[in-house]
Amino acid sequence: MDSLNSLVDGFGTALTPVNLLWAALGVLLGTAIGVLPGIGPAMAVALLLPVTYGLEPTGAFIMFAGIYYGAMFGGSTTSILLNTPGESAAVVAAIEGNPMAKAGRGAQALAAAAVGHFAGGMIGTILLVVLAPTVASLAVDIGAPDYFAIMVLAFIAVTSVLGSSRIRGLASLLVGLTIGLVGLDQMTGQQRLTFGSLQLADGVDVVIVAVGLFAIGEALWVAAHLRRSTGKPIPVGRPWLGRADVRRTWKSWLRGPLIGFPFGAIPAGGAEIPTFLSYVTEKRLSKHRDEFGKGAIEGVAGPESAASASAAGTLVSMLTLGLPTTAVAAVMLAAFQQYGIQPGPLLFEREPELVWGLIASLFVGMVLLLALNLPLAPLWAKLLRIPRPYLYAGILFFAAVGAYAVGGEAVDLVILLVIGLIGFGMRRYGLPVLPAIIAVILGPSAEQQLRRALQISDGSVTGLVNTPFSVTVYVVVALILAWPLVRKALGRNRT
C-alpha cells in the first residue's frame, strides 16, 4: 500500500508540464537515435549526459528513461524495415520482421513491435513498483563482504556472457579496472597511474570514458569500414493489426515480460539473451511453426515485449543496489553520481520524489512511445537517408563538446581521444565494451568494499565469506565459472 501511495505521488511529479516535456523529448530523441544503425541507447545517454548538467535531477532522469525505451523501439524499426538493427537488442526482430516487411507486411510487424514494447514496458514497470521497495528494504542489511561478492558476481557474469570468448571479456574488464585505478587512492591519498600529471589526480571522469568507448570508438570503427549504401528504404504504410494478428500475438506480448524482466534485473542481464529465449519459446509454442523464418508475427511480438520488460528489470538492480546490469544502466549510474546521488538501499528514503517520479514517468513514457511511433514509423525510415560521413562527423563534434563541458580542460579532449582509440582497438579485436564500462563504474567501489571488509576482519580473508549471503553469491560465481567445463564433459560422455 505504501508503494501505491508513493506511486501516486510520483505521478504528481511526472505529470507536471515540464517533466512531461522531458519525457516526450526523451522518447522522441531515443526513437530517432535508435533508428540510426550503430547508435544504441547507451551512446545516446552518454552523449546527452553533459548537456543535462543544467537540469534538475528528476527531469534529467525522466528524459534518460524516455531515451532508453525510445532507442530500444527505434532499433527494432530499422531491424524490421531494412534488416539493420539499430542496437543489439533489436537483432532478433530482424529474423521475422524483415521477411514480413519484404512480403508487404512491414506495417503489421511495426505495430506488433510497438504494442509489444508497450505491453512489456507496462508489465515490467508494474513488477518494478512491486519488487523494488522490497529489494531495497532487504538490501539495507547488506554489509561490505556482501556488496563485494555482488560486484564480483557482476564482473564474472558480464565477462562470461558477453563477447566471443571469456578471455576477451576478461581483457575488457581489466581495461576498465585499470582506467578506474587512475587518480588518488581514496584511503591513502597515494597517486596511481597519473604519470605525474595533476590533471589525472582526480581520475578519469566516467562520462569521458563512456563517451570515448561508445561514441568515439564506434565513429572511428565505422570510418575505418565505411561503405556507401545504395539501398532504398522500404515504403511503410499505416501500421495496423487485424483480428487474426491480435489472436496470434496477445499471448506473446504477455509471455515476453516473464522472460525479459528477470534477465534485466540480474548482473550481465540486458535484452540480448531474453529476446533470443523469447523467440525460441514462441517458436516452440506457436501453431504456425512452418512460418518461422518466413515472417511469423509471434517472432516479433514476443522478443520485443521481452526487450522492453528487461529495461524495467535493469532499473531494479540500479536503483536498489547501485548495480548496473547493462551499458545504459552504467551510464545512468554515472549520471546519478554526477548529481551527487548514490543509488542503493537508502535511495527510496533519501530521494523519494526523484525515484517515484522516475518510475511513474515510465508509465507515461510507454503511452507516449506508442502514440508517437505508430503514426511516425514512415518518417523514421527516411532518417536513414542521412549519409554516414555527416552522421558520424556530428557524433564526433558533440562528443568533443560534451567531454570539454565536463571539466573545461583541454586535457579532457586528449583523454577522450585516447579512450576512443582504446574503444576502436577493443572493437578491432572483438572485446565487448560493456565489461570495461561496468569495471570503471564498479571498480573503485569494489576496491573500497574489499578493503573495508578486510579491515573489519583484521586482514583475514575469511572476512569476505563470513555471511550466508556472500557464501551464496560465491557459490553462484563458482557455478558460472564451472558450467562451460561441465557442459564439455557432458558432451564428451554423450559421444
Automatic annotation (TrEMBL):
<feature type="transmembrane region" description="Helical">
    <location>
        <begin position="413"/>
        <end position="442"/>
    </location>
</feature>
<feature type="transmembrane region" description="Helical">
    <location>
        <begin position="463"/>
        <end position="486"/>
    </location>
</feature>
<keyword id="KW-0472">Membrane</keyword>
<feature type="transmembrane region" description="Helical">
    <location>
        <begin position="167"/>
        <end position="184"/>
    </location>
</feature>
<dbReference type="Pfam" id="PF01970">
    <property type="entry name" value="TctA"/>
</dbReference>
<keyword id="KW-1133">Transmembrane helix</keyword>
<keyword id="KW-0812">Transmembrane</keyword>
<feature type="transmembrane region" description="Helical">
    <location>
        <begin position="61"/>
        <end position="82"/>
    </location>
</feature>
<feature type="transmembrane region" description="Helical">
    <location>
        <begin position="109"/>
        <end position="132"/>
    </location>
</feature>
<feature type="transmembrane region" description="Helical">
    <location>
        <begin position="315"/>
        <end position="336"/>
    </location>
</feature>
<feature type="transmembrane region" description="Helical">
    <location>
        <begin position="389"/>
        <end position="407"/>
    </location>
</feature>
<feature type="transmembrane region" description="Helical">
    <location>
        <begin position="258"/>
        <end position="280"/>
    </location>
</feature>
<feature type="transmembrane region" description="Helical">
    <location>
        <begin position="144"/>
        <end position="161"/>
    </location>
</feature>
<dbReference type="InterPro" id="IPR002823">
    <property type="entry name" value="DUF112_TM"/>
</dbReference>
<feature type="transmembrane region" description="Helical">
    <location>
        <begin position="356"/>
        <end position="377"/>
    </location>
</feature>
<feature type="transmembrane region" description="Helical">
    <location>
        <begin position="20"/>
        <end position="49"/>
    </location>
</feature>
<feature type="domain" description="DUF112">
    <location>
        <begin position="20"/>
        <end position="438"/>
    </location>
</feature>
<feature type="transmembrane region" description="Helical">
    <location>
        <begin position="204"/>
        <end position="224"/>
    </location>
</feature>
<protein>
    <recommendedName>
        <fullName>DUF112 domain-containing protein</fullName>
    </recommendedName>
</protein>
